[in-house]
């Protein structure tokens, strides 16, 4: 229990930084969906989807590799120095050619996303963003590995705050001042023709500021580059790059494919913008999974040598499922309020939200399960599972999007992650058997889905919004009571850890 309390404490701190930071960042979505129309927001979503794939190449699984070897070679400073010098060198080697060939890349992009003449500048921006973000991954990993969660949180929030504040300044304050008496002064720093380009330029500045705050960690790498150690880390890490790359196909490739697979090409970018904005409504589940992962990965490695490690992993999964199920229910019970997160033009896609919430819960469970191939060193299985998921994503997107539009993309995402979750569970039980709470999963998921379905059914007869909210609040209370009864002392998970 002390180890679980430690994980909970670390998750709370990482969660605070990520929740506060990400909430600040996600507050940009209501801004973007009110400043830009769905078609322009669709362009932003697609460009970031392309960048997300390059991010995997820039980091090539080195973060997890660092955790593995930092734990394996405790107190050996060469692990940190080698990993940091590796990612600095590779980031420069990857970013500089992208900047040098930004015009040809922009020409290729223009044929597909119909961007402006400023596209070469956007491409160069993304190269800088990717390089800065990749370099910061290892210093951030060191802070996590050393349990310096507070410093991690502060630097993380600073970078995001810079991003948010500059967005507010250039997208809200400057346009208003440009229409008033300060037009001459504002015109020196603000150009309305840049439009969505401000999103990219501001991101570059925020990434650079984050890098500056991590300089104290970077200069600590004073122990040179160990080529033998580097090769060992790469052998461990590179399969994780394939795993991450395939995982990114599962996460973002639908936003690349949508404009080409939607039957109505005239509104394709508009539909992409609607889908991408509603995708963001699953923010709370995404935040929960992300913050849990920040704390859980170093925690799982640190627990591996303990006698009760497997029991700890099972208990973590148990509570993860409870919290994830509650988040799903809370969002869907208050969806009438939550949907105001995006502009009115984007709310027609609200039907994807429950599907994507459940998909993200499956992702979180998969992250819990993935410890088996990381601890056993069988990282090729991670790559294999992600490749299977990527294949499912591609096949279902090609089949479903032309028929169902962006709803098809949402269903493809859920089926993909559910399949990966199940495969990881059954294969993992062979190589690293853990008595995971299978009964808990079915119990809590069944309860929240039943309550959600009943709530939607009642909407056919009750049209007063306040009455619906009252009933849905009661349903949340039902879930809380059901959880308490399930966890009551005589059947306590602590007393009888059997599923």
Tell me what the structure shows.
- By secondary structure, the protein is an all-alpha fold.
- The chain is globular and about 70 Å long.
- The chain is built from 22 helices and no strands.
- Helix 12 crosses helix 13.
- The chain has helices at residues 2-26, 28-35, 38-59, 62-72, 78-100, 102-113, 119-145, 149-178, 183-186, 197-213, 215-218, 227-261, 268-279, 283-303, 309-333, 335-338, 353-369, 371-375, 379-404, 406-431, 438-458, 465-486.
- It has one domain (2-436).
Task: Report a brief summary of the structure.
With 499 residues, the chain is an all-alpha fold. It contains 22 helices and no strands.
Helical/strand content category = mainly alpha
Give the termini distance in whole angstroms: 19 Å
Number of domains: 1
What about the largest sheet?
none
SS field, number of helical segments: 22
State the helicity in percent bands: over 70%
Name the helix and strand elements from N-terminus to C-terminus, one letter apiece: HHHHHHHHHHHHHHHHHHHHHH
| Number of E-state strands | 0
Q: Would you identify the regions where 5 or more consecutive residues have pLDDT less than 50? A: 111-115, 492-499
Strand coverage percent: under 5%
């Amino acid at each position: 229990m002390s180890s679980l309390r430690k994980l909970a404490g670390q998750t709370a701190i990482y969660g605070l930084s990520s929740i506060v930071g990400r909430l600040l960042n996600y507050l940009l979505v209501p801004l973007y969906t009110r400043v830009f129309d769905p078609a322009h927001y669709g362009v932003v979503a697609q460009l970031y989807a392309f960048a997300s794939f390059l991010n995997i190449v820039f980091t090539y699984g080195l973060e997890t590799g660092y955790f593995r070897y930092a734990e394996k070679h405790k107190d050996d400073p060469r692990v940190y120095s080698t990993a940091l010098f590796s990612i600095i060198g590779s980031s420069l080697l990857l970013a500089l050619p992208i900047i040098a060939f930004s015009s040809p890349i922009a020409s290729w992009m223009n044929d597909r996303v119909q961007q402006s003449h400023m596209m070469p500048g956007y491409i160069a921006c993304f190269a800088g963003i990717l390089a800065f973000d990749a370099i910061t991954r290892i210093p951030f990993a060191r802070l996590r590995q050393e349990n310096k969660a507070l410093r991690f949180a502060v630097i993380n929030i600073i970078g995001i705050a810079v991003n948010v504040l500059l967005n507010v300044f250039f997208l809200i304050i400057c346009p208003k001042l440009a229409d008033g008496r300060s037009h001459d002064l504002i015109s020196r720093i603000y150009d309305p023709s840049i439009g969505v380009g401000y999103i990219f330029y501001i991101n570059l500045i925020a990434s650079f500021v984050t890098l500056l705050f991590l300089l104290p960690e970077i200069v600590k790498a004073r122990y040179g580059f160990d080529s033998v150690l580097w090769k060992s880390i790469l052998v461990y890490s590179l399969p994780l790059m394939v795993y991450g790359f395939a995982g990114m196909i599962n996460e973002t490739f639908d936003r690349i494919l949508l404009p080409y697979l939607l039957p109505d090409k005239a509104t394709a970018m508009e539909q992409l913008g609607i889908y991408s904005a509603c995708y963001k409504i699953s923010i709370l589940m995404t935040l929960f999974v992300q913050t849990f992962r920040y704390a859980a990965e170093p925690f799982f490695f640190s627990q591996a040598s303990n006698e009760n490690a497997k029991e700890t992993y099972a208990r973590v999964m148990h509570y993860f499922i409870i919290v994830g199920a509650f988040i799903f229910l809370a969002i869907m019970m208050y969806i009438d309020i939550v949907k105001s997160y995006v502009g009115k033009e984007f709310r027609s896609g609200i039907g994807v939200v429950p599907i994507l919430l459940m998909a993200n819960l499956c992702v979180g469970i998969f992250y819990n399960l993935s410890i088996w191939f990381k601890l056993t060193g069988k990282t090729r299985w991670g790559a294999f599972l992600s490749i299977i998921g990527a294949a499912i994503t591609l096949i279902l997107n090609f089949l479903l999007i032309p028929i169902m539009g962006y709803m098809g993309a949402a269903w493809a995402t859920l089926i993909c992650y559910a399949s990966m979750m199940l495969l990881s569970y059954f294969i993992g039980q062979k190589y690293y058997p853990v008595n995971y709470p299978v009964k808990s999963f079915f119990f809590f998921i069944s309860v929240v889905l039943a309550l959600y379905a009943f709530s939607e059914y009642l909407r056919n007869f009750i049209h007063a919004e306040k009455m619906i909210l009252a009933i849905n609040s009661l349903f949340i209370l039902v879930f809380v009571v059901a959880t308490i009864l399930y966890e009551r002392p005589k059947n306590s998970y602590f007393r009888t850890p059997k599923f």
